[in-house]
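Form 7-S
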Amino acid sequence: MDDSIVVVEEVHTMFESGIKSPFKATVEAIKAVALPVLTSSLVFMAVFIPVSMMGGTSGVFYRQFGLTMAVAVGISALNALTTVPALCALMLKPIKKIEPGVKPTFKQRYARWFDGLFDKFSTSFQGSVDKYMGRKPLIWLVIAIGAFLLVFCMKNMPSGLVPDEDKGMLIVEVNLPPGSSLYATDVVAKSVSNDLAKIEGISDVTVVSGYGFIAGMNSSAAAIICKMDHWDDRGKDLSAAKLYVKMQEVTQKYKEANCIIFSTPMIPGYGTSNGIEMYIQDRRGGTIDELYDVATGFLSDISKEGLYGFTAFNLDYPQWEVSVDVAKCMRAGLTPQAVMSTMGAYYGGAYASDVNLYSKVYKVMVQGSADDRRDESSLNLTYIRTSDGEMAPLSNFVSLKRVYGPDALYSFNKFSAINTSVTSSLGTGEALAILREYEAKYLPEGYTLDFGGMAREQNSQGGLGGMLILCTFLIYLILAALYESLVIPFSVLLAVPIGLAGSYGISMLFGLDNNIYLQTGVIMLIGLLAKTSILITENAVERYKAGATIREAAIGAAGSRLRPIMMTAGTMVIGLLPLVASLYGVGGMGNFSLGLGTIFGMIVGTVALLFVTPVTYTTFQKIQDKIKTGGDEDEE
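Output:
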C-alpha cells in the first residue's frame, strides 16, 4: 500500500505545481518516483533473502513470513507502477481554486483548511530540520545513543524461541511415591481433579491414571487434562497464567503426591511440555546409581538460580529379581528360556494368534487373570508342562527376591541418560546459559548435558545479530549501486538502529522476550525504515543534481517527502493495531510481540529519520564530492 500512496501523493504534488491534466500529472509523477519506488521495494525484498536461507525451525518461520512479504512487496511495486498510475489518470482531478465571489464547495473548503494546516506544519518541520543542520553533533549523538541502546537491549533482553500462549488447556501431572498401586494413584488423581474442576474458568477435567506426560507409562503417575472456558468468556482476569497460580494453590494441598502443572509445547512434536527438556548423560560408563546421584545433585544446584528441575526417574521402584534353577530345569527336560517364556505369558501377557469374527480380525492374547497373579504365592498355582507330560508349578524352577531399582532405563545420543524437565521464570535463552554454566561448574568429569524439544532447537540456532548485519550489508550494496557511491548509502542506514532500539526497548518494558515473532518484526522494520529513508535521500540527490546546494536539497527533500512518509508510516501502524489488540486468545502473545515491537519501532524510527536522514545526507554528500574532486571544495 505504501508504494501506491507515494504515487498518489506525487500526482497531487504535480497538481499543486500547476499541472491541470491528470494524464500529464501522472506521467510526471511516475518519472519522479519510479526509481525510489523500485529501489525501496528491492531493498525491502532483499532484507528477507538471508533469513529465508536459515535452517531449522527458525528458518521455517522466517521463510514462511519472509517469502510471503517479499512477494507481496514485489506485487505492490508492480501495482504502484502500472495499475495505480492508470487509475490516477482516470480518477484524480485537481481541486479547483476558490474564485472571488463564488461560494466554495465543502471539498474546496476542506482542501483549503487541510492544505493550510499541513503547509504550516511542513514549514515548521523544515525550519526544525534547518536548525538541526547547524547542530550536527547533536544528531550524531542521537545516532550513537540509538546504536548503544540497540546493542544493550539485544544483549540484556530475555530470549526464547516462541512465547508461551494461552492454549486453553493446562495439564497437571500427579506423581505418587514409586511403587504406588494404580488404584491409589487413581484415588488421589480424582480427588485433585475434583478440586481443580471447582476453579472458575475451568470447564472440563479429564483424568488419565497410569500415564504421565513426563513419567510415561507408570502405575504411580496420572495426568489431569484441564480444559478452560473459551477465551472470550474468560478475559484477562482468568488468563492461563492466572489460572496456573490458582491451580498451584490447589495442588500444593496434596502432600502425598508431587504435582507438576504445565502446558503442551507451542510447536507440536517438540517435547511433551513447554519447559526445557534436559538430559543428563553418563559418557564414562558408570553405574545407574552414580548417574542418579549426579542428576539429583545437579537439579538441587540449579534451584539456587530459580530453576525448578523435575525428573520422574527413581531408583526406589519395588521389583522382583527372578532366578531360574538351571539344574532343576534340565532334570525336568525344560530349558530356562521355556520357563521364563511361560512365566512372561502368564504374568505379562503374550500374543497367541488371530481370530476372524464378524468380518474383523482380533488378536488373541494369553494372560493369567488378575486374581491368579496378585502376589508371589501365585507361582505355586502356575504350571508348566515337563518333558514327560506332567504339569509342574513354576515355583519348582524359579525363586523370587525383593529388590529396588528404576522402572525403566533410558539413553540419549547412545549414552545412559536421565530425562528431566526444567521450568523457570527467566527466558529460555537465559535458562540455557545458566544450565551450561552450571554444567561446567558442578557436573563431574564424564557427565554432560544435552537438550531435546524446543530447547534443543533454540540452543542450536544462530544469533540474530549476525543476520541483522548481513541484511544491512545487502541493503548497503543495493544502495551503493543505485547512488554510485560508497558513502551516501550510510545516510539511509544510520536512522535504522534508532527504530530498532525503540522496538526492543518497548518490548523490554512490557516484559516480552526476544522471540521469533519480535525478530521477524525487527527484520521487517529494517526494510520499512530503509524504504522510507530512501524517499528523502533519493529526492535530495535529484535536487542536488538539478543545481540546489546540499543544504537546500536536504531540507527541500525532507519537506517534499514529509506527507507520503507520514501517510505510509501511519497506514503501517494502523494496520498493525489489531495485532496488539489481540493479546488474549490463540496466538495472542505472538501477535502482540510482532505488533507492539513493529509499531513502536516504526514510530520512533520514522520520527528519527525525518531529522537524521537530511543531516547525515549533507555530511556524506560532502564526503562524496571531495572523493570525486580530490579536493576540499565546499558544495554547500
